[in-house]
Inverse folding.
């Protein structure tokens, strides 16, 4: 009888272990790009702007697929906050960050960024993503809340095993860098923002 009890415990443990292995786990990575490489512009827009990231967005954690059935987790707004500040500062004469639109005082424009991401991997043996995409959509309004324009910057990043074995976040960082740089270009070239 004791053997049957032990047998059930062992079977239960094996089943639980198999379930965990099949569902995978989520590994922490960072999307933060190299802040020293922000794109520059030929002519800044001479306006004071505020960009809005709410506390809820700053705390938001996202999970997307990695390799080997695992997932990766990260905080898009927190990871990109410094890069977004640098991007807006590269384009506009004066930039402040606020938590709500109502905090934006004495500015010409209020910008609310939205971040969406995807990730995937062609590896069944390693968990870091080999492909990552970042899409930044900035909704711009005037101080009264009237729509001015919407500006977008997207980027993708790839990383092979030989590259990411020393930086598991490499594909994400590359995608973020490309998205932020493309956002800078789109902001600079927006006729609506220069009016």
């Amino acid at each position: 009888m004791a053997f049957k009890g032990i047998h059930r415990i062992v079977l239960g443990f094996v089943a639980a272990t198999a379930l965990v292995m099949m569902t995978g786990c989520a590994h922490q990575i960072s999307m933060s790009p190299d802040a020293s490489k922000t794109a520059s512009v030929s002519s800044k827009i001479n306006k004071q702007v505020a960009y809005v990231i709410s506390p809820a967005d700053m705390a938001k954690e996202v999970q997307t697929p990695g390799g080997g059935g695992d997932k990766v987790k990260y905080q898009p707004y927190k990871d990109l906050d410094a890069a977004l500040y640098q991007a807006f500062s590269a384009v506009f004469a004066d930039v402040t960050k606020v938590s709500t639109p109502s905090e934006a005082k004495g500015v010409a424009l209020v910008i609310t960024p939205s971040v969406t991401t995807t990730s995937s991997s062609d590896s069944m043996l390693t968990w870091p993503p080999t492909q990552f995409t970042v899409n930044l959509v900035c909704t711009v309004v005037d101080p009264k809340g009237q729509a001015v324009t919407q500006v977008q910057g997207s980027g993708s990043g790839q990383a092979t095993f030989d590259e990411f074995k020393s930086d598991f976040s490499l594909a994400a960082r590359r995608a973020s860098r490309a998205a932020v740089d493309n956002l800078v270009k789109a902001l600079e070239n927006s006729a609506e923002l220069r009016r």
User: Anything to note?
Assistant: The CA atoms of residues 107 and 163 lie 43 Å apart. Residues 2-23 form the longest helix (22 residues). The chain has one domain: 49-194.
